[in-house]
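Before the break, one more example. Copy the sequence into your notebook; we will annotate it together after we see the structure.
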Amino acid sequence: MKTGVISEADKAKVVLMHTPSVEVFYGSLFPSGALYEQQMNLSKAVEEHKTYISELENAGVKVVNLRDVLEYSKKESLIGCASKSLKYDLDAIEDADKSALLQEKSRVIESMCKKSLVDTIMLKPTIQVVYSKEQNVRFDCRYQVNPVMNQLFLRDQQIVTERGVIMGKMNSSQRALETEITKLAFSGLGITPKGEVEGEGRLEGGDYIPLNGSALLGIGLRTNMDAAAQLLRKDLFGKKEIALVLDPYKSQDEMHLDTYMNLPSYHKAVILEDRLDSSKKPEKIPTVMVFKKEKGFYTKDLVNTGATLECYLKKKGFDIIPMTKQEQLNYGVNFLTVEDNKVIGVKQSGDEYISRIEGKGISFKALDFTNLTSAYGGPHCLTQILCRE
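Here is what the structure looks like once it is written out:
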């Protein structure tokens, strides 16, 4: 499958998505521990997600479902991933019995159908085995799950540059396994990632926004300078210019670059007013560190480095569309650009905001994301565009 994205405003052709399932239910039982904003109604969230998929398909976008890809993957690959996800806690078991129990674990996994293997990967169960006090059975068990509750936000596990898919590295322990799951899906699609962030680097896809000829990478709460250095050193952006957007705020409600700015067009940028030069909160104004490629290597552009994000974009010819903090909290900025001047966004961002966007010549298809946004993400977070043209 062809992968690659030059600009956020190019026409979306193929998108990877994951309809939430039982793993999200567990997150809703304790939202703050799942990185959620509040409790989610799972059945309504599934309806919202399916409506979103239908709207994308009506716009000519091919939607690839993560779970479908996994269930069509080679069983051997699923067994390998499920073996890591399923844990037998044998701390209370004598050494003489452990070998037989681990063999039983292997037999259980190998006998599973593909659907059950995917369930195991998504739920990450732990079976705590103890000796039974009953005479009719030797072992007793306690069951725990540690589900991948944020897998539905497929923006974050990777970025897609002009080079292709680049695997990220999640900043939160709750999300650590997600990159392995999407990597498995890419293998099933015949996609080989062009690179991967390693070591102390942290890269989440919500911090990456490509422009024609350049790209923005947010450095803040979720993505760090170590990851940016790796991407620059390995030339994984495929761009002549990269602007690192240095976020001094680092707050959960503005965790990624795409939570306070977005591009609905080649020459228009929607930005939270607190992040603009006229902000009454100067401590929130991001600046850029610019690198330009010369003779195959990136070097710092001392002329443009230190400029504010607004100044940098205006110099690139962008018309800035401000949005209020309440509109940002209502996920107004987290729309998905389907093509130049055409977006799918959040209905609850408000009629006034939507009218202001449409007044700039942008088609705004408003959908209900009331339950999906409860997990702290909107239409942009829910999608990973694999190819734009």
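Residues 73-145 form one domain. The chain has eleven helices and 20 strands. Try to locate both features in your own notes.
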